[in-house]
Amino acid sequence: MFYLRTVFTKISLVGNRRCVSLRTLNLTLTKSPGRCFANGNPPREDNEEDTEAEYEDLVKRTFHLSDSGNQVLIVQPYVKWGAGKKRNTTPELQLAEAVALVETLPRWKVVDKLVLPLQSFHKNTFFGKGNLKMLRDKVRENERIVSVFISVNQLRGTQHHELEEQFGVPVFDRYMIVIQIFRAHATTMEAKLQVARAEIPYLRSRIRDYQEGALERIGASSSAIGGDGETFVDVRRKIVGLREKKLKQELEKIRSNRELLRSNRTKLQYATVAVVGYTNAGKTSLIKALTGKATLQPKDQLFATLDVTVHEGYLPSRLKVLYVDTVGFISDIPTELIEAFNATLEDALLADVIVHVCDMSHPDLSAQCETVTATLQRLNVDKNLLENVIVAGNKIDLPHRLGPDMTLPPDITRVSALHHTGLNALSNRIEKSVLAATGRVSMVVRVLAGSSEMAWLYKEVAVSEVVSDSEDSQYVLVRVVISEGQLGRFKRLFIDQ
Predict the structure, then answer these.
(1) DSSP readout, 328-397?
(2) Comparing C-alpha atoms, which of 351, 355, 484 is closest to residue 430?
(3) For all residues of the chain together, what is the average pLDDT?
(4) Torsion of CA 138, 142, 144, 147, to 10 degrees
(5) Cα–Cα dist 258/194, whole Å
(6) Where does the Hflx-type G domain lie (predicted)?
(7) What are phi and psi of 425, to 5 degrees?
(8) Pick the CATH number of 440-495 from 1.10.3470, 3.30.310, 3.30.1490, 3.40.50
(9) Hey, is 239 helix, strand or coil?
C-alpha cells in the first residue's frame, strides 16, 4: 500500500476569517496487480453495505448536503441580448423564484441577493473578470455567506470548479438546489427511490470534471494511475453504476405495480384526469376541491408533492373519475431531473384528460405556463392529449400581479380551489372532455321502476337523474353516462332477449 495525499488549498485571511478553497483531493491508493482503488477500499459487488456507504458519501460531497442548514448569496445571471435572452420573464422574477427555492429548505437563509447581466453563460469562469472580482470580494467580506447559489439550470464542471476556487465556499446551481428540496420532501420509499434516480445524471457529469481534473493538476495521468488498473474516475463510475442498477430494479418493481393498478382501473373502465402544473400552482388544492377529500392536506411550498397519487371523484353526471396528482414542474432544470419520476408520471402521461393548473396570482404566469407546456412536450405526451389540455386558472381570489405584457393561456377557466369558485364550469369542461376521450355518451334509458334493468344500470354505469315516465307511471326515465361496451352488454342482457 502507498499513500498519495495532495491538498489543493488557497488560504487567505479576510478580516478575522480564514477562507479555504474546497478543492481538496485526499486519496489512499491500494495497489494490487493491475488495480488501484480510492481510499484503499475497492467497491465490491458482493458487499452492498460498503458500496451504499461510498455512494452516499459521493452524493454528500457532490451536492454539498448538510443537516445544519446554510446561509446563501443568490446570484441571478441573465443574458442582456441576443438568442440567449429570455423574453417571457424578467431577471427580477427569476431572482424571486431562486429566493423561494432556497427558503423552501429547512434552516437555509438568504444572506444577500443580486442580478447580474452577462453576454453569455459560456465562459469557463462563468462571469467576466469584473463581476468575478466583485462577487469574490462580496463573499470574502461577509462572514455570514457560507455558500453561493448561481441560479442557472446546471453549471459545467469547469465553471463549478473555477467558481469554488475563486469564492472559497460551496457553489450551487438549480439542479443541486432542487435535489436538496427533493431529498427534504421525499417521505415515501417510492419518492426516495426516484429522487436517488434524479441524482445519477448529475453525479456522472461531475465525476470526470472534478476528479480527473484534480489528478491532472498533480501531474498524474488519470488513465495511467495504478498501472493498467482502475483509475479513481473508474472507481467512482462503478459506484454510481452499481447504485443505478439497483435503483432501476427497484423502480421497475414500482412500474410493474403501477401497470397492474392501471390495468385494474382499465377493466373497471375508470376515466383518469391528470392534474399537472408549475410547482405550487395549487394542484393538490384543486383536487381536494373537486373530490371533497378531507384527507388531502395541500402545502404552500415548492415541490410539496413528490409522489403521484390517485383520488376518486365524481363529475356532474355522477360518472366516477380518478384525479392523478403529479410532481410540479419548474423552469431552468434539465429534463432528466423530471424524467427520473417517469415510473409514476406514466399515470399522468396515460390519462384520458389533462388539466393544467396555472397560478393566476403569480406575476410570472406566462413563463410558468410555457414551462409546463414545454415539459409535457419533452416527456412525449400523446399529441391528441396535448391538443385538448384544459387550462384552469387557479387562485383568482388572490390579488393579480400580472405585468402589462403578460399573456393568458387561451380558453382558460378561472377558479379558486380555496373558495370553490368556478368549480362547476371546470367540472363541466372536464366531463365533456372525458366523454369525448373515452367514447362515453349521455343518454336516457326507459325501464320498469325497480326492475333488474334499473338495478344493473345503478351498479354498472353513472346514473345522474331518474324521473317518472309521464305516459306510464310504471316506468322511469334514467339518464346515464355509458360507454359503448357497457351499452352493448345492456342490450345483450335486456333487449336482445
Answers:
(1) PB-SSS-HHHHHTTHHHHHHHHT-SEEEEEEETT-TTHHHHHHHHHHHHHHTT--HHHHHTPEEEEE-TT
(2) 355
(3) 83
(4) 30
(5) 14
(6) 271-438
(7) -65, -40
(8) 3.30.1490
(9) helix
Instruction: For residues 349 and 274, give the distance between their C-alpha atoms in angstroms, rounded to a whole number.
Output: 8
Backbone angles phi, psi at 256, to 5 degrees: -65, -45
pLDDT tier, 352 (very low <50, low <70, confident <90, very high otherwise): very high
CA distance 257 to 7: 49
Lookup: cell for 338:
423530471
| Short-list 472, 470, 474, 465, CA closest to 444 | 465
pLDDT band at 296 (very low <50, low <70, confident <90, very high): confident
Q: For the chain, how far is it from start to end, CA to CA, in angstroms?
A: 88
Mean pLDDT in residue range 463-476? 92
The CATH architecture that domain 70-183 belongs to is 3-Layer(aba) Sandwich (3.40)
pTM of the model: 0.80
Class of 269-437 in CATH: alpha beta
